[in-house]
Structure formats: C-alpha cells, structure tokens
User: What shape does this take?
Amino acid sequence: MGLVVQKYGGSSVADAEGIKRVAKRIVEAKKNGHQVVVVVSAMGDTTDELIDLAGQVSPFPAGREFDMLLTAGERISMALLAMAIKNLGHEAQSFTGSQAGVITDSVHGKARIIDVTPGRIQQSVDAGNIAIVAGFQGVSQDSKDITTLGRGGSDTTAVALAAALNAEVCEIYTDVDGVFTADPRVVKKARKIDWISFEDMLELASSGSKVLLHRCVEYARRYNIPIHVRSSFSGLKGTWVSNEPQGGQPMEQAIISGVAHDTSEAKVTVVGVPDKPGEAATIFRAVADAEVNIDMVVQNVSAASTGLTDISFTLPKAEGRRAVEALERTRDRVGFESLRYDDQIAKISLVGAGMKTNPGVTAAFFEALSNAGVNIELISTSEIRISVVTRADDVNDAVRAVHSAFGLDSDSDEAVVYGGTGR
Amino acid sequence: MGLVVQKYGGSSVADAEGIKRVAKRIVEAKKNGHQVVVVVSAMGDTTDELIDLAGQVSPFPAGREFDMLLTAGERISMALLAMAIKNLGHEAQSFTGSQAGVITDSVHGKARIIDVTPGRIQQSVDAGNIAIVAGFQGVSQDSKDITTLGRGGSDTTAVALAAALNAEVCEIYTDVDGVFTADPRVVKKARKIDWISFEDMLELASSGSKVLLHRCVEYARRYNIPIHVRSSFSGLKGTWVSNEPQGGQPMEQAIISGVAHDTSEAKVTVVGVPDKPGEAATIFRAVADAEVNIDMVVQNVSAASTGLTDISFTLPKAEGRRAVEALERTRDRVGFESLRYDDQIAKISLVGAGMKTNPGVTAAFFEALSNAGVNIELISTSEIRISVVTRADDVNDAVRAVHSAFGLDSDSDEAVVYGGTGR
Assistant: This one.
C-alpha cells in the first residue's frame, strides 16, 4: 500500500462535528495500510470572515498582509484536524504550506507553485504519523514571504504534494458525489461519471464545470497523478480522473463525457472593423494589455460591399468594463464603428474525446439545440469539444436537450446513433 | 532617535476600531523619528474562541497542535495591524515569531526563549518599514515546530526583541495607566508610580501585581532594557521600569514602592513532624517531585515536650491537590500527624528597596495591620519586601491600612516617620 493524499474542502470541515467526521475517514485510510497526507482548507466561512475583518481596517489591503491574514484560516483547521485524529488514537502532525515545502513565486493572492520540497512531510509519514498540510498557501522563493495560491489553491496543493511524494492517488473530498455528465441542479437525470480522462476533464473545467478547476487537473495531468473526486459525506465511490481507467472501470471511453455550461461570461462585439491585415491584432493586443482573458473569438466573413467585418469574443463578466475601456481607446486607430457589450449570454459545451472519431456529433448537437428552439450566436470547437453561445435564458433548456440527445440521461440505454458524416 | 519596541495586548486590538486606534499611535512614534517594532497579541477573545474550538474536537489537545492553533490568533491581529498602518500611508510588514527569529526550547505551551535572531526585522526597519511581530510565539530550535511562550508571552517577546535589537525602550501598552502603589480596584487612593526599579518591580510581580509578569521584568533587567508601561487608551505617560530613573524623574527612590496582594494561593500545614534532620527535606522533595511551586515556607519552633513541629507553606491553589496527594504518600515515612489544607488565605506584601536602610518599616507594617484588626498567620521577608499571610476576608482592609500607613495614598503628603529601631 502506498501513499495517499486526501484533500478536504471548507464545507467538509465547517464545524467541530465535520472535523471529527473527516478525522474518522482519514483514520480509516491509515488503518487500511496507507501512508496518509491530508490537505485541508479553512473551516466553512473563516476565509470570508477574515476578508470582512480586512475590509474593516483597510479598503485596499496589501497583498503580503492579506495573504498573512488568510493563511490563519488553514492554520486553525489543520491544527484542529490533527487534534481530532490524535483523539482517535493515531499520531498526526500539522504543517503550514511553508513547513511542507510548498515554494511559490511572489505574486500575492494568486501565487504559482514553483517547487515542492516535502522533506518534513515524508519524514513525518515515515515515522508513522498522519501529516496534515495547510492548503492554499506557500512561501515565496525570493522573499520568504507567505503567499496564497488563489482559486482552487487547496486542490492544487494536494495534487502538487501527491506528485512530489509520488502518491498512488490524490483524493479530492467535496460536497458532491463526483463529476456529473451535467450540472445536477439543471439536469435531474445527470449521471455521475465513474472515470474521465485528464483531457476531457480539462475541457469540462474550462467550459464551466466547477467540481475541479483547470489548474489542478492540468497539474495532475502533467505529473500523471490520478485524482479521485468524491463526497466527504456519502462515502460512495466518486469519479476517477486519470490517463487510463482504474481497475474495475470499463476500458472503452464513452464517446461523450458530459455537457458543461457557463453563465459567467459576457460577449463583446466590435462592429464595422475595416477588413485589412493588422486590425484584429491591434484589437486583441489592446485587450491583452488590459489583462483580460478572452475565451471564444469569432470573426464574421467580411461583407464585400463595405469591406467591413465584425469581431466578437467572450470574456469573464468581471473583466468586461476593463476590456471595453481598452477598446474605446483604440477606436480612432482601428476605425471601427461601434462596440456592443452583452452579458446576457450562456455558453454550452459538449465534451468527449470520442467525438474525434465519431462522425455526426456536431450535427446532432446543433439538431438538439434546434429542436429545443435555442438560437446559436457563436460557435467554437476543439478536437474534443464543441461550444456554442446562446441567450442566457435558454441555458437550462439547451443543456437538458443536449444531455438527452447524447444518451447521457440516467434512464437512457446509451445507444445513440449519430446521423450524417464527418464531425 | 533610536529603535522603539511597542507591545499591544489583546484588549488594545479587540476589534477593527481598536486596531485602527493602535495604528495611529504607532505611526506617531514613526513620525517622531523612531524606528518602530511592534509586538501584538491576539485580538480580544480570539484565543478563548480557539481554545473552545479545540475543546470541541479533543478533550486533551496535543501541545504541538494546540500551539499551532493558538498562533493563528496573532497571525490575524498582526496582518490586520499592518494593513491599518499601510492605510495611513506608512509601510508596514508583519512577521510570525518564527520569521522574527524567536527561537525557543520545545516545551509546547510554555516554551522559553533560547535566542533571538531578528535579522529580518532589522532589515525591515532599516528599509523604512514598521515591523509588526506576533507576540507569544516562537519556533523550537530542535524540531522547528511552532511553540507558544505561555503566560505573559507577548510581553516577553517584546522585551526579548528590544534586547536583541538594542532598543532604547520597550513600551508595554495595556488597558491601565501604569503600575500603581496598590490595586486601584481595592485602594481608591492608589497612585500611579512614575518610576520603579527592576528589583522592586520583580518583587511586586511575584507578590501579586498583575501589570507585568516576573518573567518579562527579569528578562528586561538582565539585558537592561527600560520598560515603559502605559495605557493604549489614554495617551498619558505611564510607569518607567529601569535601573535608573529616566530623564525628568526624581533621582531619589521612594522608601516604599507599593503594596501588592495575592489571593491565588493556598496554605498547606504539615502537623506534628518529628523534629529531626532530614524530615523537612523529605517533605519538600516530595512536593518538588510533584512539580508544585511553593512560595512561603515557615517552620514553627519545636515544642520541647513533644519533639514535634509544624511546617507550613503556600502554593498556587491550582497545585493544591497535587501537593496534598504527594505529601500523603510520604506520611508513613515522615511520620507526621496530619495535613491541613486552607485556600481561604491572602498574601499582602510591602515592597521597596528603601526599607533596607530605613529602620522600623517592619514594625510600622505590623502596627498598621494590627490597628486594622487583621491577624497575621505567616511572615516572610526579603531584603526589599515583607509579606504576610492573612485570612482572605481581611485582604482589602489590610491592603488599605498598609497603603495609608506608609503615606502612599494620593492625598497624603508622603512624609512618613517610622518609629522603633531596626527593621
């Protein structure tokens, strides 16, 4: 039996009862003969309470001090978890990110992990302890200041430690049973996925699935660390994310892994752009310089009569104002006619490596949307994904229609035949 | 202008308003041209809340994890304080005990400082920052584990940093105006002491005065760091504790510094001890092995008729049970008749280096108690202190009577003449 890294989120350790429940589960893994390293987030609302406190003393808290403040949250949860484990008769030691060797760059609030040197963790587990590590935090290589990793930071800590410790698996415990074929709040018949490849999971994560963040899956893929996403409440087997299906899983990958949707984006359309070389470059340079992350990009075919074209792209709503202001400043240089900003859109994505070799997936996707009366505004594709932008109001109908059309509903027999040829 | 270390206790930073008020005071010191290092305790009730959380997950929290948990408290207050200072337009950086170079032994919960290596703090203040340091915590030399310093730990952190940084003064900010000639809650006419020697302060601290703990004063005396105890609320000048009176202070020390009282002790009497060599040694070895800290010890003159004597000593109430149990186990060996345990006692102490050279202080002390109708049960003296044990019910009357008799009352003219000869 090898080493297992388990990660528990804030909702799993929201109070003393939660901590005791999690402690029991950790001890079970230890009893099963594993070496166990646990990564834990701050308890429930702790982080929000600390952010609120910071707001009370300063409207613009400095990054270094904000990180120092927030990391108190995991310090509390990890120490309590170690106590709860020891109370069950097993040895446990807690470690800060710094003590665990999580070395980062110096970008406070969203530091990247540069290196992991888990010597103290390895020593601790080799001595028979369960090691508890604070998620979400590290120490900067240059200044030795405390840093936080930003969104999904604790999951990333867990995967990074799993890689550095050569773990068998990184178990991500959460408040849902795993990754589903669609958001179960939207699609009642959504099914839990038993196994999904890193590639499909990456596409789902960047298409709006919230269970695992892109960053963590990317890290796991790079170091080939199998992730097991599961519930800390139910004890059920969850979803394996890995290169190859795990023991007992079907070896043949489903054609379609799932349907993701995202209502966090807005659409910007630059209307009446002169259709000559360099205009698009000027536009996207301006957007990039404003540090806006764009997602889908579509350029209309130029109207021959006017020599003008429209360029549309999607971006996070939170970055909309910044993008529009940056574009306004290029208006004279580019000579476009107008800007349109639309935040009432949704993106629906169909993900599955199987679509590469199965003709007709695209056609079936569009047919399903059409039958549901959903209009398509933008289209973008990758090898294993098709995404469309629709009206925000249509998102639930669209997701349900597509989920059903591809035989993903839990009462479906999965035998879906695609018409047409080619993708 | 040199370097100043300021220490703020939990009641001074109990909420966001308190933190902002303290930030202003710190910035004033900086504006006056000082390099400023600040030691801060956890906010108000934070430590109690964390202790409560620990109790919810484990009845016997392990020392290492308990220290990890508690140190989250200062992490929060120091980060918030740094933010509040930066919000006033001054640069500030917060540092954990470990980052500040507070090296301790490995005794979790009451670690002793072994060394202070404040290289990062010196760098930070040399670069123009105000450095904020977490009080009460350090890192163990051997295992690199986080430790806490126990009672009075933040004051000790401040004095230790002041010594290591060669500070001009260590300012201890608290919720009272300084050290008083008696507890102002008991003696309405108690006066604030402007200056007191390390020696007198040490005696007051070990006699029940709560403003400064013995440990912190002892550290300051060893490294000759002047302490200025003052209120973080009033802005008044407080009490200087040092070898020599500070500028503007009267150079002649008062005969008597103050009256301290202590109701936290109990009295154990071993009745009917055979008066032969070695019996007392056996008794106190048993008590010492039970890790009981004894204070006053008195042995009666042996009664010639019986060859038996009584031995009484005082000790912290919390250690009473341990002491009595340890003594019961020696009963057969020592052959004493019985044990008496009495926790309804008080200790009243008169402290002042001046009493060494002023005859009649002891007599005047006993006369004051006698006039107040207070009975004396035990007496113990040092060069600069007389202590008596009385009934707990008599403590307030006794303290007031002595305070008044030695001209310490705020409406007194201080001209006290002692009758009698010798001490």
User: Anything to note?
Assistant: Chain B is about 30% helix and 25% strand. Chain B touches chain A at residues 16, 19-20, 23, 50, 53-54, 56-62, 64-66, 68-69, 71-73, 75-76, 78-84, 86-87, 92-94, 99, 120, 144 (CB under 8 Å). The longest strand of chain B covers residues 265-274.
